[in-house]
Amino acid sequence: MKMNKIFLIILFFSGLIFAQDENQKNSNNLVFDGNIEFQKDKYSSAEYNYRKAYSIDSLNYQAPYNLGNSLYKNNLSNEARFNYNQSLAKLNSKEDLHKAFHNLGNTFMKDKNYQGAVDNFKKALLNNPDDEETRYNYVLAKELLKNQKNKNDKNKDKKDNKDKKDNKDNKDQDKKNEDDKDENKQKQDDKSKPKNNPSQKQISPQQLKSILEAMSKEEKKVQDKVNKKKFKGNPKPNKKDW
Predict the structure, then answer these.
(1) Using CA atoms, how far apart are residues 43 and 40, in angstroms rounded to an integer?
(2) CA–CA separation, 180 and 199 (whole Å)
(3) Which CATH superfamily is domain 22-90 in?
(4) What is the tens place of the pLDDT at every residue in 90-128?
(5) pLDDT per position as a tens digit, 2-58
(6) What gap in Å lies between CA 120 and CA 68, rounded to an integer?
(7) What integer pLDDT is reported at residue 60 of this predicted model?
(8) N or C end of the chain, less CB within 10 A?
C-alpha cells in the first residue's frame, strides 16, 4: 500500500514536469513564430504570438521583451514600457539587462520624456559601457533634456513677467476707475449747481455746421498723414532582439 502511494506521487510529479516541459516548448515555439512575423514587419501578428507564448509560460522572459519590441514598433510606447519592465524582473545577465534598459530608454525618447530616457540609457551603459548606440542615445537625451529645461525656464520667466505686467495693468486700471469716479462725482456736483447767466449766447445751426465741417477736414488731414506711415510688413529607434 505504501509503495503504491509512493508510485502515485512519483507519477504525479512526472506528469507535472512533463506538462511544464510541454508548455515551455509550446511557448518557445510561439516566440519563434512571433520573431518570424516581426522580421516581416507584421507587428500585430508578432504581438499575438508573444502574448500567447507568455500566457502559456509566464517564466518565458523572451515573450514580454519581444512583445515590447512589437508594441514599440506599433507606436504603443506605454505598453511597450510595461512589457520591458515585466521582462526586467526575470533577467539576470548584464547583456540582457543592457538591452532591456536600452529599449526602455527608447520608449521614453519617443514620448519626449528625456529625463526617463537619460536614466534608462545610463542603466544600460552600466551593464554594457561599450555599446556605441546606447552611448549616442544617452548623450542625445542629455542634450535634449538640457534644451527642454532651458525652454521651460524661459517660458516660466515669460509667464512671470506677464503676471507682473497684468498686476501692474490691473493696479493702473483700478486707479483710473477711481479717478473716473471722482471725475463723474465732480460733474454731478457741477450739474446740481444752479445755472448762471441764462442770457449766454447760443450757437446757431449754421455756425455748428461750419465747426463740424472744419473738424472733419482736420481729422481727414491727420488720417492722411497716418496712412502714409503704414507699411506691410529622432532619437534613432534601435531594435535589439534576443
Answers:
(1) 8
(2) 32
(3) Tetratricopeptide repeat domain (1.25.40.10)
(4) 888 999 999 999 999 999 999 999 999 999 999 999 999
(5) 555 554 455 444 444 544 688 888 898 898 999 999 999 999 999 999 999 999 998
(6) 15
(7) 87
(8) N
Closest listed residue to residue 102, CA positions, set 126, 74, 86: 126
Task: Retrieve residue 122's grid coordinates.
Answer: 545610463
Query: At 82, which amino acid appears?
Result: F
49 contacts 60 by C-beta, under 8 angstroms: no
Q: Which cell is 193 given?
A: 449747481
3-state secondary structure of 129: coil
CATH code that applies to domain 94-169: 1.25.40
CB half-sphere exposure, 181, CA atoms < 13 A: 6
- The residue-averaged pLDDT of 64-86 equals 92
Residue type, 203: I
Q: Is the pTM of this model over 0.70?
A: no
- The pLDDT-based confidence of 233 (bands split at 50, 70, 90) is very low
Question: Residue 2, SS3?
Answer: helix
Rounded Cα distance, 32 and 61, in Å: 13
CB 65 within 8 A of CB 90: no
* Higher-pLDDT residue of 87, 223: 87
**Alpha-carbon dihedral 38, 43, 49, 53, rounded to 10 degrees:** 80
Q: Are 72 and 50 spatial neighbours (Cβ–Cβ below 8 Å)?
A: no
Place of cell 515669460: 158
- CA 150, distance to chain mean position in Å, is 16
Residue 154, CA distances (Å) to 18, 147, 149 in order:
64, 11, 9
Give the distance from CA 94 to its chain's centroid: 31
